[in-house]
Design brief:
Mean pLDDT: 96
CATH topology of the largest domain: Rossmann fold
Number of strands: 8
Shape: globular
Number of domains: 2
Largest sheet: 6 strands, parallel
Low-confidence stretches: none
Helix content: 40-55%
Order of helices and strands: HEEHHHEHEHEHEHEEH
Strand content: 5-15%
Radius of gyration: 17 Å
Number of helices: 9
Structural class: alpha/beta
């Protein structure tokens, strides 16, 4: 059976999801959401409350947060604007790369692979996160949830990313951590490699998974 390393080594273009795949960003998402809720007069998330939709575009993430604290839907726009202000101000100070992710990126570039990010995070926020953690130079293309008319799992963001890389879909794969990534890759007819230490759950297995890994060291070796 082919491993995650086998699939990565065999593709000239590698597309990564961001949240839960390259970086653990939940602490900054939680802090910005709580600050936005305070600004708008609502109670904050309790420490034990898990944000259930970290794979979605920002409006969906915030809708799930609002449901947890029983904030009315009419407050959505105000909360989102407050969230964006706080998230940008934090500059991803509380996010961090997953172990050995940087080593893999360096290895892939040295081997001539073309690298991109395709995320449902707002493009501006995604680029800020990459810059804050010294990753901007590794990626030729960064596609966000607002870059195209539809977010993942619609195929358009990933196909747009592959096209911008000037790559062929037959030479690409997507590395991600949730069922949204798995379905997106399936919709595009490319292999999906599952980072099982991210934010996903067993629903990933409802879709084709070419291989999985828990630590990027498994691909670097």
């Amino acid at each position: 059976m082919k491993t995650a390393k086998d699939f990565v080594d065999g593709c000239s273009a590698i597309v990564f999801d961001l949240d839960g795949t390259l970086m653990h960003t939940e602490p900054d998402i939680r802090r910005a959401a709580n600050q936005a809720l305070i600004d708008c007069g609502f109670q904050t998330l309790a420490p034990e409350q898990v944000i259930p939709n970290l794979y979605g575009p920002l409006p969906d993430i915030l809708a799930s947060v609002m449901a947890l604290v029983q904030a009315p839907a009419v407050a959505a726009e105000e909360i989102q604007q407050a969230y964006l202000t706080h998230y940008a101000r934090q500059a991803h100070d509380h996010s961090f790369l997953y172990p050995n992710a940087l080593a893999l990126l360096e290895q892939l570039l040295s081997q001539g692979h073309h690298l991109a990010v395709c995320t449902n995070k707002i493009e501006k926020s995604a680029k800020q996160a990459l810059e804050r953690h010294g990753l901007s130079s590794y990626f030729t293309v960064v596609t966000g949830g607002d870059t195209t008319a539809h977010p993942k799992p619609h195929p358009l963001p990933l196909l747009t990313t592959i096209d911008a890389l000037q790559a062929k879909a037959s030479n690409c794969l997507l590395i991600g951590d949730t069922h949204v990534d798995a379905l997106c890759a399936s919709n595009c007819g490319i292999p999906f490699v599952f980072h099982c230490s991210g934010y996903g759950d067993d629903s990933v297995r409802q879709y084709p998974v070419a291989a999985s890994f828990a630590n990027y060291a498994e691909i670097c070796r």
